Amino acid sequence: MKTCYFTASGNSLYVARKIGGELISIPQLMKQNDITLEDDAVGIVCPVYCGEMPMMVRDFLDKSTIRTDYFFFVYTYGMSETVAKAHAMLAVEHMGNKLDYVSTIKMVDNYLPGFEMKNQIETAGKKKIEEHLSEICKDISERKIKRVSVGPFKKAEIAIIRSAIGKSIMDRNTAKSYIVNDNCIRCGLCAKVCPANNITVKESVEFSDRCEVCYACVHSCPKNAIHLKSEKSAERFRNEHISVMDIVTANE
Ligand SMILES: Cc1cc2nc3c(=O)[nH]c(=O)nc-3n(C[C@H](O)[C@H](O)[C@H](O)COP(=O)(O)O)c2cc1C
Predict the structure, then answer these.
(1) Is 174 near ligand 1, meaning CB less than 6 Å away?
(2) Cα 197–Cα 77–Cα 39 angle in degrees, nearest 5
(3) Among 13, 14, 110, 251, which residue has the most ligand 1 atoms within 8 Å of its CB, making it the best to mutate?
(4) Distance 141 CA to ligand 1 centre (A)
(5) Alpha helices in 204-243 (DSSP H)
């Protein structure tokens, strides 16, 4: 089994580890010209971004050839998954495959403009993460089939959410509006955790136009020097089971 993952603050990596198999980082795979994956089971674990998958995961699916008897997709999310499962069904169909299992797991929401991180972290216990995660792991190990149907109404809902919310937030130039304050010691960690190779650190921290809007740089900065104008609080988050070096290894 191969479990491909995308993570910014560790939730999806933690889930991928629990599901098991050979763990493969999607940002690492994206460095290859040709991506062909073959195994008895192949799956994706990634966060929900504005009711969809991260842009890089969509690009990864478009670019890859996946040969498997069992194709699974698990999203981590924080507040509302909206149409994410339908998106996964369509994206996998678009690459000429069929999704066998799609599920979601509610965890800490790392969307800084939406939530006070402290509150998110403190209330995570209510989400019964371990319980839900065990169910997903059992389903996948038993190769359970779980799909969602995507009819015209669902497609209309997808289009509405994308134009109402997604378009404005999922902008590859977002990083250009990040604020780097005087706490920055130019350690370069932000560049290492960036899955899109979008950051260079010389005299100052510079952002290019490939931002995935994942906030890995913002959440991982050891000096809490990177901020969003729209953030609800300065508190940051990383999944408690995942180290900053795990994020570096995944995304560098
Ligand atoms: C740009 C952005 C958009 C997000 N959109 C959603 C969303 O639509 N619904 C939701 O429930 N969570 C949303 N989230 C929260 C993440 O999906 C959630 O915290 C996820 O578990 C993070 O995974 P990671 O720790 O592996 O990076 C969003 C986060 C970011 C950064």
Answers:
(1) no
(2) 70
(3) 110
(4) 26
(5) 216-220
Is the separation of the CB atoms in 177 and 231 below 8 Å? no
Task: Say if ligand 1 is within 6 A of residue 166 CB.
Answer: no
Q: State pLDDT tens for residues 77-119.
A: 999 999 999 999 999 999 999 999 999 999 999 999 999 999 9
Q: Give the Å distance between the CA of 169 and the centre of ligand 1.
A: 12
CATH no., domain 174-251:
3.30.70.20
User: How far does the centroid of ligand 1 lie from the alpha carbon of residue 203, in Å?
Assistant: 31
CB of 109 closer than 6 angstroms to any ligand 1 atom: yes
The single residue listed with the structure tokens 């993570």 is 7
Q: Which of 241, 249, 251, 168 is nearest to 217 (CA)?
A: 251
144-175 pLDDT, tens digit each = 999 999 999 999 999 999 999 988 999 999 99
Could you state, in order of their start, the residue ranges of all structural domains in the chain? 2-167, 174-251
Question: How far is the centre of ligand 1, averaged over its atoms, from the C-alpha of 79 (Å)?
Answer: 8
pLDDT for the residue numbered 84? 98
* pTM given for the model: 0.98
Measure Cα distances from 61 to 53, 70, 169, 185 in Å.
Answer: 11, 15, 21, 37
> 106: exposed, middle or buried (C-beta count within 10 Å: 0-12, 13-18, 19+)?
buried
Check if CATH label 3.60.21.10 holds for domain 2-167: no
